[in-house]
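for the writeup, i need someone to sanity check this before i put it in the appendix. the sequnce is what the collaborator sent (i think, or maybe the updated version? ugh). structure was predicted straight from it, no edits. if anything looks off just tell me and ill rerun, i have time this weekend
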Amino acid sequence: MTDLTSNICQIIIFDEQCNASNYGVNTYVSQILDIFKNHVHIKLFHVVLFSSIKEVTFMRVNENTYMIKIPHYNGEKDEAHTIYFKNTIYLLRQYIDEKVHTIFHFNFLLTASFIDEIKEIFRSNLTVYTAHSILVPSGYKKISYKDDISPKVKDQAIAEGIKIEKSFLLKIDRICCLSDATKDFFYKVYEINESKLLKIKNGLKDRYKSIPQIEKKKIREKYNFKEHKSKLILYVGRLDYFKGLSYLIEAFEIILTKNKDYYLY
């Protein structure tokens, strides 16, 4: 178990270059980096996997923070995937002290074998995974997922994904769940030991910019909002099918049948 009271600690934060990382996950990772950036006894390594760059890059961001970008590989076969992660560990060993207490923080689903190799090489470590999303097929509560995935799950891609996700989670020491629903799912469906599950809600810096009333009025006029009557509903997620935008639009149509003074942005 990693001891944060020791003289030095390393936190390796794994990220990926993808749409999710450019939005919500990126905000989450940025918050973590910001929290620890001034702790002189903690070294931060922000590792970006599957990067679009052409070669491995290592840069110092500030006094105790470093960024390592590892290029994407060509091919999607399991063997290529395995080699990619083996090479990732080889690269990390050049920058990370294997004798120092280390926390490996994952923000995307990887492979169970990758976790095994990390634990084999970096003996004094703690692995943490933040579940920003989960693979939940329709009607999952009626299905009991054991080692052999229930035949009721018709979509084989989902079934295989669930098997990979569960095997990965079983290897992780601590799992951060952003909601009660996620924690409940992992405990009841994946049968993850409850002692490994932590509910830590998303958080942001407490920042607020006060806008004078005259500025608010100008903004409302710019977008043709009726003074004091218009109600604004703001969607702040990325424009992606998986975010359920179709449901949001359907719900908004119902609102408009009752009140025309609502706007969705």
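The CA atoms of residues 31 and 204 lie 7 Å apart. The chain has two domains: 9-199, 213-264.
thx in advance!!
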